[in-house]
Design brief:
By secondary structure, this protein is of the alpha+beta class. The protein has two helices and eight strands, in the order ααββββββββ. The chain has a five-stranded antiparallel β-sheet with strand order 4-5-6-7-8, with no helix packed on it. Strands 1-2-3 form a three-stranded antiparallel β-sheet, with no helix packed on it. The termini are far apart.
Length: 151
Amino acid sequence: MSFFRILFIIIFILAGPSTALADETQKTTEEIVNLAKEINKQIEEEEDVPLNDPFVGNEGTSSSNSNIPEEEKQEQFSLYNYKLTGLISGQDHSYISLVDASGDNTILTLGQNLGKIKLIDLRLTEAIFQKEDKSYLIIDFNNIVRQADEY
């Protein structure tokens, strides 16, 4: 009889803390799940943040060049509709990243066309495109697009 008592006491001692530990773990898991649900609700309720700075006005999305030709303004792939956001130049390959007013990113490598213009060269702070009439358009990180006969 004492053997069964000792066995019962040992089982009770061993099972007791694990049961209490399981209850605490279950409570902790439920608390984490509830916290995650609250965070998801808050995220869904938050407003969408605009891509452009609302305090800048139209200057944030338009080119700083005021003498843009009318046909360039209406052309979808006009360089005036893009901002230069990145430039990577390497020994074998060179890339630029352009972003339009809607926030869509376009990545070009040397020799690729953007509409009717072709990316032909990169400098440290600017990208050079060649137009069909063999003149050049140069865009820099200040969003200034200038036309040139030579580069």
